[in-house]
Amino acid sequence: MTTSTAERRPFALQAFLVGFLILWIVVAAFPFLWTLWGSFKVEGDFFSKADWTSALTGPMTTVETGGSMTGQGYHGAWVLNEFWRAVLNTFIVVVSVVTISLTFGTLGGYALARSGYRYVFWILIVALIFRAMPHVTLVSGYLLPFYQWNLWGHLPTAIIVLVAINQPFTLWMLTSFFQNIPKDLDESAMVDGCSRFQAFRLVIIPVMWPGVITTGLFSFLLAYNDFAVTAMLLNQENQTMIPKIASFLGTTQTKGNVMFAVSAVVSATAPLFVLVMFFQRQIVSGLTAGAVKG
Amino acid sequence: MLLFIALPIVSVIIQSVYAPHEQVIREIENCGVFGCTTSTMVDVEATAAQSEGAPMGRFVGGDIFTDRSHLATSEIGVLWSTATNIGDFLDQLLNLPFYGALAFTLTYTALVTPLSILLGFAIALAVNAIPKLFRGPAIFFSLLPMIVTPLVGALILFWMVDARGILGSVLQALAGDPNLSVKASTPLMWTMLIIYGTWASTPFAFVVYYAGLQTVPQDTLESAMIDGATRWQRLRFVVLPHLLPLTTFLLLIKIMDNFRVFEPIVSFNAGAHAQSLSYFIYSDLSSTNQLLSSAAATSVLTILGIIILLSPVILRTWKSFGRASS
Predict the structure, then answer these.
(1) Could you report the per-residue pLDDT of A172-187, keeping only the tens digit for each?
(2) I need a labelling partner for A12 at 20 to 30 A (CA). Which of A50, A105, A148, B143 fits?
């Protein structure tokens, strides 16, 4: 929006707004910077009883390791506690979930967007209720049969459950996206002699990428951020990052272990930072797509 | 294609209905020695033997739903007749695990939802007021609390508010009490969880409102100005009505999200002070003798709760949808 005359504000109001915004940004971003900085210290500094500034300057770190910054926490988490294995598992889970749910979501969303109205509405309401249910609720339903069928603890199981949880949302987003692609587009393709599938492949696929990328981002976030499903359904070896971090916390009695968790947390947050940096526009548009429709 | 989507939903519903029947035997025995708390492990063998015969367990209908860990109907009856006044009754009621969890979940939802929506709206107005150049970075930093993994975000805050962390120290200095610890006090824990919740869910409201502000019709704004409307009146009579549908949407999503609050409680290690319904299920599932039936019963109750909470919104949507398509 250009700054029209309607937008011009008295100085006091403008100053107040800017001040408020700066306050919010500090509140929003400071914890991350603090933790990132602290992850290079030893526990005695990050949790300092004596003086909060020691987390910045790191006197204990200097005493214990010789430098004011240390990679001990990272070494402990990644090498000693095999965090890399959890990272690998997360990678497998996330990639599979995104791929599978996008495949089903695109086809299903397209079909729903091109079918009758009532029917679409009920599917979406079911999807909405399904989305509203806490994931733990679903897991408690899945757990028993998985024990009985001996499926518990494997990565594919968790992937399937995550896809199932994710699907309604994917479908919802992609349906509303496909509804924005004019029907004329594929209808004229079919008039020109394409079959339904050809119309989808040749006409719709080239124009659908923005929506697919946005939806893919959200599938990624769901799979990446999930705790309930992966914590309950995976065994020790197949743990993904988030349950792994939670398991670090169970062993915080030993000195220095908290720092493993801190550095693991920073490692798990870093990809999300990069993601937001590159895909900010898509995330914003994706978040608002549903709102504009709703 | 629909099958692929419908099957997991159906299977989940079936399981959440059927699972309560599993391990019922143990629950029944519990009720048999009513009032004695040490009886949980006694009949494990019997349970194992019986559950081998009937894998789904014995059918008991609503017994689990009404036992002490859930709706606790008989206990409420007792409380109601013995409690001296209504406050006493409520106190006792909240000591029952299910009602405690329900109370926290509802408090959390009722506070975090409006707080985050209001705060998000204010931030959206502020971002809209700054030069374009700074908007990108502002949005970037505003998004962070939402995008970051809930468990991780809550952990970060938890470490800061630890008695030895930076916020914890500040709090101690403010209160003048060097032994103040958020971990040790229930009201502080609740406050902390609610602050975390607001922190984490404000960005969503912000983004939605920010996008909404971009679509406010400029012509209407200008004509309102020509008619002599003040800044406040323009906000009140042009911008707010324009954003009303968005608010409904936000309410719907936020109620859904806040009602299933779970990760912060794990991160804050707050199980002793505050339990949400989700955490209640989780702790049932992850305890040593997995209480599947109890968890499933809570799950069903939770789903019912969600349906009750959301029904007004869904009804509204349904009505407006009916209008739109007819």
Answers:
(1) 778 777 877 787 877 8
(2) B143
Q: Is residue A232 part of a domain?
A: yes
- Same structural domain for residues A172 and A267? yes
- Judge if A55 and A136 occupy the same domain: no
**What is the number of domains present in chain A?**
2
Of A41, A72, A103, the last residue of a domain is: A72
Q: Are residues A252 and A176 in the same domain?
A: yes
What is the predicted pLDDT for the residue at A161? 80
Identify whether residues A266 and A122 lie together within a single domain: yes
Distance of residue A277 Cα from the nearest chain B Cα, in angstroms: 7
Residue range A70-92: mean pLDDT, rounded: 76
> Are residues A49 and A85 located together in one domain of the fold?
no
The token pair at B185 is 């006090």
Per-residue pLDDT tens for A8-34? 677 888 888 888 888 888 888 888 888
Query: Which CATH architecture does the domain made up of B96-325 adopt?
Result: Orthogonal Bundle (1.10)
Indicate whether A55 and A83 sit together in one domain. Answer: no
- ipTM score of complex: 0.78
* Count of alpha carbons within 13 angstroms of residue A247, beta-carbon side: 21
In a domain, A19, yes or no: yes
Min Cα separation B279/chain A (Å): 8
Q: Which residues in chain B have Cβ-Cβ distances shorter than 8 Å to A136?
A: 260, 262, 278, 281-282, 285, 299
Give one word for A9, left, alpha or beta, with left for phi > 0 and alpha for psi -120 to 50.
beta
Reply yes or no on whether the pLDDT at A272 is more than 80. yes
Domain boundaries of chain B, sorted by first residue? 19-90, 96-325
Closest Cβ opposite residue B126 in set A21, A29, A108: A21
pLDDT of chain B, 326 residues: tens digit per residue: 455 445 545 555 555 455 443 443 344 444 444 444 444 444 445 544 544 544 444 444 455 555 666 666 666 666 667 666 667 667 766 677 778 788 888 888 889 889 999 999 998 888 888 887 888 888 888 888 888 888 888 888 887 877 677 777 777 777 777 777 777 777 888 888 888 889 888 888 888 888 888 888 888 888 888 888 888 888 888 888 888 888 887 888 888 888 878 778 877 776 667 777 777 777 777 665 556 666 666 777 777 777 787 777 777 767 766 655 44
| A32 contact residues in B (CB cutoff 8 A) | 144, 148, 156
A185 shares a domain with A41: no
Backbone angles phi, psi at A195, to 5 degrees: -80, 170
Of B244, A12, A14, give the one whose Cα is nearest residue A3. Answer: A14
**Which domain range does residue A13 map to?**
9-72
User: Cα separation of B294 and B71, whole Å?
Assistant: 11
Please identify, among A25, A49, A72, the residue that sits at the C-terminal boundary of a domain: A72
CB contact (8 A) between residue B138 and residue A25: yes
